[in-house]
Structures are given as structure tokens and as C-alpha cells.
Amino acid sequence: MYHFIDDLTFNFIIIELDRSSDTADSIPRIKKLNLSAATLLGYDEKELIDKPLDIICTPEKWQTTLARLTDGISCKSFEGELVTKASKRILVLISLSVLPGQNPKKTDIVLLIQDISNRKTLDKIQLMMHRAVEQSASAVLITDKNGLIEYINPKFTELTGYTSEELLGQNPKIMQSGNTPLEHYQSMWQSLVSSGEWCGEIKNQKKNGDDYWVYECVSAIKNNQDEVTHFLALEEDITERKRLEHRFRQAVESAPYAIVMVNESGTIEMVNSQTEAFFGYSRHEIIGQPVEVLVPERFRSAHIGYRQAYLAAPVSRSMGVGRDLYGLRKDGTEFPVEIGLSLIDNNEETIVLSSIVDITQRKEAESALRESEERFRQMAEMTGEWLWEQDPRGYYIYSSIAVNQILGFGQDEVIGKHYTEFLTPQDQAEQQVYAPSHQPFYALTNHYRHKDGHPVLTESTGLPIFNSEGKLLKWRGVDRDITVRKHFQDALIESEKRTRLIIESSLSAIVIMDSYGLITDWNHFNNSSAVSQCPPSGITTFPTHWHWSFIKSTD
Q: Which CATH number fits domain 3-120: 3.40.50.300, 3.40.50.880, 3.90.550.10, 3.30.450.20?
């Protein structure tokens, strides 16, 4: 009976509804099912014969399903949920058809079962995708195969100012800025035709006329016959990034030093005009070349190792600290450089930004300064004068060899010591209350202690050395030993005092004249106002006797 359903490919189940009982316990029983239905439910056909229908229905949906069945309305369809032998739930669409019969209390009903699980899943996915596109942070545009716009999402409207009503049926050319070369669009379409996708940066124009930049990816959408039906474009607004890139390039281009941008493989990606001026290359000659093309041959192999080590632990710093660095020009000449390294992380790879300063003039100035200082020190040492340098706190950072002749100390015994350590206790006490004014000093008398303990007098001259900002860098000065000279000066003063005492103590008038006959001194027996600077003929009052003595000068 009912063998007509056996060979049908649709899922058929025939149930018997017993209406002889009005109780709720009257459950329809499975009377017949075809192979297709049995396979869908995971059973053998015979396993379900004469079994209650609720064996394949979920508890949650059973009462609804039973109510539909007892209505007995033919061709009425409803959604239900069945459960397989493996306890897997499947969504189905059930269509009812009541079969004619002789027994009014028993009704046979044919159930046409359609598995709509996949369709429901697709509907759910479709809804989810629609919401994702509608809420996407990227602008989305869909055109037909001829390029006419069929859909834009809210973000696209926010970005461009155009509404769906204004763009549907339009060609995206309506948003072209006019600043993008025709070749760019031709390349885009060639890529779409050959590979089905294109990604790149493009400059478009908003509804209000403002230009904006987007990073756009366009993909071809194909049907089951591999025919293009639509094009999908995803756009990310990069206007701000392009603005910052422009400012960055302007800053790089206007820098007073060479800037070279190098990728992880050591390939030059960008240079500025100063790089061209320093090295003699044009941009197109060195972009794409290894950075070692700018390094002298003898340093290249080592430079590769330094570069790889730096990339392993990158940090912004100066390059080659403690080493002399050189750049190589296109003409083969070398020049001294200083190099600073900075990092740019673009989330894809590490970019190294090298700032290169030509220090040729500074090196020449330093060399000239060293030569000048060396000449000065040689001259100072030949004269026997002690040349020294002190840091701003008064600690010796340089001492000429003459310190050994003057104080008995070696150069290494002086360097690193404070100058007050070599002064006498009296001078040390005076220095404690001395407030340095950073002013030069001249012919300052210092009282030092010789290494063997005897005092040494020097005449000291010092100059403060400042940097370009006015900060004190060091003191530079010279000390001259005046111990012997001071001894003779003191002896001469003492001799003059004794001579004056003798002259004043004399009971005779004494007049002293120079070689020109001019009176230069006399004692108290003469009238000073009348005698001063007068020749003997000008004296009106003469002593009774003259005693002449001649003193011969050493000059």
C-alpha cells in the first residue's frame, strides 16, 4: 500500500491519525516512509514503521506540530523541527495532504518534508552580512557588470556626501577628481580583467567638491558559471594619512642634512635633495639600491653585519659611536659623516630612517684647532710656563710638562685634582670664600706648595671658555714662576728702605741727581719745594761744603 512514494526523490512520510479517542494521548503513528525520508532522518525504513511520530519531533515543537496535523488541512505548509537518529536537529518545511479513506475515525496524512536547514543558515548569514556591510567602518560600493552602482552603505554616504538615491544607476566616474591619470584607471581595469581584483590608492571628489584619498580594493563577483555579475569595492579613507605623509615628505625634503629611508633588506626606498647634493647621485639612481652603495668599499662587509644586528634590536640612536664614519660619493671621494638612526613601524615591516650630516668643515676646524693648541702648548713649554686647563668646577683636565719644573709634580699627578689642593693653606682659605664670576683674570699671584714642601709663587692668567649658548665649558690659563723675581723685588725694596734710612739719618745735607743733573732725591736738610727737579745752578741756598759722589747704574 502507498508504494507510489517509494521511488520519489522527495521526502515523504505517511502517518495515521486515530480520531477514535479524544484524549491527548492519541499520537499519530508512522505508517509508511520512503528511502529519501529515512535517509534524511538517519534511520532504516523499517525502523520507523508503526512508531509514534513524536520519535522524530523535538519536544519544543511537538505540540505545535500535533495541532497542525489534527487540523487536517490539505496543502497547508508550516515550519517545523525534526530530530534525526543521531539527535541532530534539522529545520524542515512540512506540507500536509489528507488521503481519502473508508474509516472516518482513522485518517492517513501524507507529509512532504523539505530540509530548509541550509536555507535558514544562508538566510541568517545573509542577514548577518547585510548588517556587517551596513555597519562597516569601510565604505562599500557594489556595481553591476557594466559598472553602474547598485548599492552603497551608510559609510559611503558619510565619506562622499552622496545618498543612495543620488548614486544608484550612476557610474562611479561621477566621483573622479580629475587628478588621477587615465593610465591609472586603465591599469585598474586590466588587473580586474586578468585577476579579478585590484587594490590601490586613488584620489576622488566628494559631493561638495572636496578631494579625498581612499585605499580601495575592487573584486569581481562571479556566478556559478564563472561569469562576472557584479563588482564590489571596499574603500578606506586615508585622507588624513596622505596629509601627514605630505607634511612628512616636506619636512624630509627641507631638512638641512641628508635623509635616507631603508627597508629591512637594506634597500633604499626614499632620499631627499640633500642626499643628492652630498653623494652626487640623482634619486632614480639610488632608490632601489642597497644602502651599502653609499659606504666606502673597505667598510661594506662590516656595515652589513652592523645593519643586521641593529634590526635585531632596533632603537633610535647615533650610529658608530666612538668610530669615524665616512660616506662615499658617486665620484669615488669620501667625506666624514655623522649618522643618526630612527625607526618607522608601519605594521608591515621596520623602516630605518638615517639622518646623515656632512662634518667635513667641522673636522677641518677641529684639526685646525688641534694644530693651533699644539703650537700654543709647544710655545708655552719652550718658555717654561705652565699651561693648564680646568673644567668648570676647577679640576685639571690638562697640564703641560712645565708643572714638573715649577711644582715638582708630574702631569698625571695633577690631572683630575682640584687646583686648591696645590695651594698653601692661606690661599686655600681665601679660595673657599671666593665666588667665581666667570671673568678672565690677569697677573693673579698664587701661592703654591712645591712637591717637596717649599713655597712657590706664580703669576696666573686665565680665560673662561664658553660654548655657543654661553655655557662655561672650561678654563684655560698659564702660570709663570715668579718666585726668584719676587725674591729680588723684595730684596730691592729692602735695600731701598735701608738706603733711605741712611740718607735720612745723615747729619749732612744730601742731594741725589740723575745723569742729566736733575735732582731726584734729598734728605730733610734741604728745602724740598726749592730743590725738587732743579739743577745745581737753580739752588739759591747752598750748604757750606759740597761732597760729590757718583753712582754708576747697571743700565
A: 3.30.450.20
Alpha-carbon dihedral of residues 52, 57, 63, 67, nearest 10 degrees? -70
Measured CA to CA, the distance from residue 419 to residue 388 in angstroms comes to: 10
**Separation of alpha carbons 538 and 44, rounded Å:** 164
Amino acid identity of residue 157, one-letter, is T
Dihedral, CA of residue 192, residue 198, residue 202 and residue 205, to nearest 10 = 60
Beta-ladder partners of 410 = none
Other beta carbons less than 10 A from residue 17's beta carbon: 20
Q: Is 352 helix (H, G, I), strand (E, B) or coil?
A: strand
Whether the full predicted model's pTM is greater than 0.85, yes or no, is no
The b/e string for 131-151 (b: 16+ C-beta within 10 A; e otherwise) is eebeeeebbbbebeeeeebee
Q: What is the pLDDT of residue 530?
A: 44
Between 3.30.450.20, 3.40.50.150, 3.90.550.10, 3.40.309.10, what CATH number should domain 364-486 receive?
3.30.450.20
Q: Can you give the pLDDT at residue 532?
A: 47
- The full DSSP string for 265-327 is TSBEEEE-HHHHHHH---HHHHTTSBGGGGS-GGGHHHHHHHHHHHHHS---EESSTTS-EEE
10: its cell numbers: 522527495
For the stretch 326-340, pLDDT in tens is: 999 999 999 999 998
The residues, ordered by sequence, that sit 6+ positions from 176 with a Cβ below 8 Å of its Cβ are 204, 205
Q: What is the DSSP letter of 351?
A: E
Q: Is the pLDDT of residue 311 over 90?
A: no
Write the pLDDT tens digit of every residue in 396-425.
999 988 999 999 999 999 999 999 999 988
Q: Count of alpha carbons within 13 Å of 306, Cβ hemisphere only?
A: 15
Strand 139-144 to 228-237 pairing: antiparallel
